[in-house]
Every structure is written in C-alpha cells, then in structure tokens.
C-alpha cells in the first residue's frame, strides 16, 4: 500500500518473499525486487493471520515527535492488514534508546498497542521465521510526501480517532469540551491556550518577541506556559487534552498536539526560508487543525510548498510575523480580539 515507483513508506506482506536485506542508515531493510513490489501491491487484508512482526529502520524514531508519527502509522497498517494478529517482535534497528523501559513514552505506547510483543533494538534477523511483516520507513514518508503522503493521511484518518481515544483512556485524560459561540460572536468560556516554551538549547524565541506573543495570546484566552520535559508521559497527555490550542516553536513538545480534543489546533512558529512538514502532516493524520507561521506565509492543512528543509534548526528565532499569528488565532477561535 502507498507505493510510488521509487520507494515506499509502508510495506505489508502476506507470505514470506525471499528478501535480500540491505543496510541503510541505522537499520536493515529489505531490498525489494520487482516481484516483491508486485506482491506488496497485491496485498489484501488477511484476518486469518495470527502472528506478525514489525520492523522500522529510522534512527529519528528515538525522538518523541518522530516516534509518535511512526506508531500511529504502524497502528493503522496493522488494523487494516492484520486485524486479528498479535505482534511477536518489533525490530527497531540500532538506536540509542531503550524502548523496553516501562516508563518511556515509546515503551508505554508499544506495549499498549502491541501487547506481549518483544521489543528488539537490533536489525531484522534474516533467520526470523515469521511469514507476515509490516515494514515502515518514516524518512521515505517525509521525503516523498508529495507522492505518497496524501494517501497516507487519508488512510490513517480512518483509525486516528481510535488511536487517540485509546491513549486518553490509558492515561486517564478527559478532553475539554469545545466551547459554543454566543450571539455576540464570542465563546461561551475562556479559551485555553498552551504555550510550549523552549526552555533551553536551540530555536528559542527572543524575549521581546515572546513577551509580545504572550500579550497577544492573553487577549484570546487563558495561557498556560508549560515545560513538558518535567512531566511524565501520562501527565503530558492529560495536559494537552485540557486545552483548545497549542502554540510554540518547532520541536518535540508540539507532538503533544496529537492529544488535543477534536476541536483543538496547533500553531507552529518557524523561521524564514524554512519548510517543515513534520507537524502539518501529523495534524492532518489525526484530523486536527494546523497553522504554520512563516515569515512570508501562513500555511494551513493541505497546503504544500516546496521540499522539506530543516537547515535552520540550530538558530533562535529573531523575527516573527505577528500579522500571521493574529490571522491564525482568528481562524482557530473564530473572532478577532
């Protein structure tokens, strides 16, 4: 499923083709022949399969945000292709993270959605005898977004509500109800805005920009300034579920927008001359609203412009288009403050 003629983000195979395994990045992936591709393209859901393996090769997945995009894709692919199968083993490649730790977000979610699976931080073993596999390539999904991404978004939409609801239940989160709008055009309650502040390292808003941003936000609702790094995974989910909007500079904290209520939205602040699709695609997959504030444009759901670029990631933000910030807030909340 979701194939282009060059590379595929997803592979689900019924039967065991004789893969030739090749090393790519920090993991091992199958080198697919023309016959392998044909077999994959012809794959159909098989409710009779009882055991499968999962493999993904991307070293990015040790990061919180990239892992979240990976697991929701794996969840959706398994729901479609192997709805009655248990996962025997998950191969994560040679990554510098112990996902088997019970307290890690990665470990908690893998065990929640694939209970009983053995998490193996090594490459796929050629001698593994399981005949049914799901392979996933996150970097291909990002790189070939203009080819494969729209199909992936539409497909995952079918399962995203179940995915988010299961995590809410696991974490004990209660999503805040959407406000209703009064006759004067204003909401029935104070809106809840979560500012995901960057507390150190790279990509911080300069203080004068941050102060002015908070002044604008205060006109629209009550602001919570958070440092998700000090919260447990369950606490992060519960905090996000109780807000109408998350706003912040590109970074892992914005991945918690996946736990927003259905009416929630994300506003991502970026630098000029950069193009980052990560969170835009993420929000589209879970049917939430996205607004990207760039120096020269305001990007919304479904908008694509150029190739993904991330060379800016080492810089702080010294310039911010507040007109676009205001436009995004007005579209999120439906009024001008």
The pLDDT mean sits at 77
Order of strands across the biggest sheet? Answer: 9-8-10-11-12-13
- Secondary structure tally, helices: 9
State the share of residues found in helices, binned by percent.
25-40%
Number of domains in the coordinates? 2
Give an account of the 3D structure.
- This protein has 337 residues and is an alpha/beta fold.
- The chain has 2 domains: 10-171, no CATH class; 191-333, Rossmann fold (3-Layer(aba) Sandwich), CATH 3.40.50.
- 32% of the residues lie in helices and 19% in strands.
- The chain is built from 9 helices and 13 strands.
- The protein has helices at residues 34-41, 64-81, 105-113, 138-143, 145-171, 207-218, 233-241, 278-285, 322-333; strands at residues 10-13, 20-24, 27-31, 51-56, 86-91, 118-120, 133-136, 191-196, 221-226, 245-249, 265-269, 289-293, 298-300.
- The strands form 3 sheets. A 6-stranded mixed sheet has the order 9-8-10-11-12-13, sandwiched between helices. A 5-stranded mixed sheet has the order 1-7-4-5-6, with helices on one face.
- β8 (191-196), α6 and β9 form a beta-alpha-beta unit.
- α2 (64-81) packs parallel to α3 (105-113), α5 packs across α7 (233-241) and α5 (145-171) crosses α8 (278-285).
- The longest helix has 27 residues, at 145-171.
- The protein is globular, with a radius of gyration of 21 Å.
- Residues 1-34 have low confidence and may be disordered.
């Amino acid at each position: 499923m979701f194939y282009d003629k060059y590379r595929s983000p997803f592979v689900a195979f019924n039967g065991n083709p004789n893969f030739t395994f090749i090393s790519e990045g920090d993991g091992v992936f199958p080198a697919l022949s023309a016959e392998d591709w044909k077999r994959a393209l012809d794959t159909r859901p098989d409710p009779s399969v009882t055991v499968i393996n999962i493999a993904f090769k991307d070293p990015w997945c040790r990061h919180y945000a990239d892992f979240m995009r990976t697991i929701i894709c794996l969840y959706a692919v398994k729901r479609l292709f192997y709805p009655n199968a248990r996962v025997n083993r998950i191969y994560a490649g040679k990554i510098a993270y112990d996902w088997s730790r019970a307290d890690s977000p990665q470990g908690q979610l893998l065990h929640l959605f694939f209970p009983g699976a053995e998490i193996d931080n090594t490459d796929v073993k050629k001698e593994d005898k399981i005949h049914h596999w799901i392979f996933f390539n996150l970097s291909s999904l990002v790189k070939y977004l203009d080819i494969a991404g729209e199909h992936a978004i539409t497909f995952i939409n079918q399962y995203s509500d179940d995915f988010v609801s299961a995590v809410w239940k696991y974490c004990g989160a209660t999503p805040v109800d959407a406000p209703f709008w009064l006759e004067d055009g204003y909401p029935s309650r104070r809106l809840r805005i979560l500012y995901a502040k960057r507390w150190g390292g790279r990509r911080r808003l300069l203080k004068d920009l941050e102060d002015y941003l908070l002044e604008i936000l205060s006109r629209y609702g009550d602001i919570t300034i958070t440092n998700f790094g000090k919260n447990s995974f369950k606490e992060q989910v519960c905090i996000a579920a109780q807000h109408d909007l998350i706003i912040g500079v590109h970074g892992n904290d914005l991945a918690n927008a996946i736990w927003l209520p259905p009416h929630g939205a994300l506003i991502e602040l970026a630098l000029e001359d950069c193009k980052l699709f990560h969170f835009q695609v993420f929000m589209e997959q879970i049917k939430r609203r996205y607004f990207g504030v760039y120096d020269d444009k305001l990007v919304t759901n479904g908008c694509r412009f150029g190739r993904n670029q991330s060379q800016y990631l080492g810089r702080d933000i010294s310039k911010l288009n507040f007109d676009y910030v205001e436009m995004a807030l007005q579209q999120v909340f439906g009024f001008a403050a």
